[in-house]
Design brief:
The protein is an alpha+beta fold. The protein has a single domain, classed as Electron Transport, Fmn-binding Protein, Chain A (Pnp Oxidase, Chain A, Roll). Helices cover 24% and strands 35% of the residues. Strands 2-1-5-6-7-4-3 form a 7-stranded antiparallel sheet. The longest helix is centred in the middle third of the chain and has 15 residues. The radius of gyration is 20 Å and the shape is elongated.
Length: 184
């Protein structure tokens, strides 16, 4: 992979990267097919060093996943707007992670069930009285009659970067350029 152009924003702390992957609720999977490039927002779980998500057994996303490609999955955390009296220097404080790798359909019913259980524990912790059963996963059909299929992205490369919060420059409702110019 090519190095980050703005290396000063790179985050290499694997613990911080994993924490963002664990707490972010929506990730974005970049795909390409004969209709062009598109990005799909997904619920997901970072579990056992992989990104798991689920879907139908057919459709545009599934067709695009049939190619033996390297895919990109992205999460980002918006930390607020950073102000500057110079318009071109106004920006966003953020932390983002991009994971690149191959995507596989999870073949093992046990692994698929465990991954879906991890996803339930992420999104609705403590809600269900018992663990998800393999029988439920195996027999479930959506309203359209489709079985649930679990996929995993196996990262070959993960990059992360941030533009940190600058407390004194963070925008809040009512803050104006004139207020900041008076401080100088």
């Amino acid at each position: 992979m090519r190095p980050l152009r703005r290396a000063m924003k790179e985050v290499t702390d694997s613990k911080r990267i994993e924490q963002l992957l664990e707490r972010t609720r929506v990730g974005y999977l970049g795909l390409y097919d004969e209709e062009g490039t598109y990005v799909v927002p997904l619920n997901f779980v970072w579990w056992d060093g992989k990104i798991y998500f689920h879907g139908s057994h057919e459709g545009r996303k599934i067709d695009a996943l049939k190619k033996d490609e390297t895919y990109c999955f992205t999460v980002a955390e918006d930390l607020g707007t950073v102000t500057s009296t110079i318009p071109a220097k106004t920006g966003t404080a953020y932390f983002s992670v991009m994971a690149f790798g191959k995507i596989e359909k999870v073949a093992s019913l046990e692994e698929a069930t465990d991954a879906l259980e991890a996803m339930l524990n992420k999104y609705v912790p403590g809600y269900f009285l018992s663990k998800l059963s393999q029988t439920h996963v195996e027999k479930y059909r959506s309203g359209m009659g489709s079985p649930t299929v679990v996929y995993k992205l196996i990262p070959k490369h993960i990059s992360a970067k941030e533009d940190p919060v600058q407390e004194e420059n963070m925008y809040y409702t009512g803050r104006t350029q004139m207020d900041d110019l008076r401080k100088k």
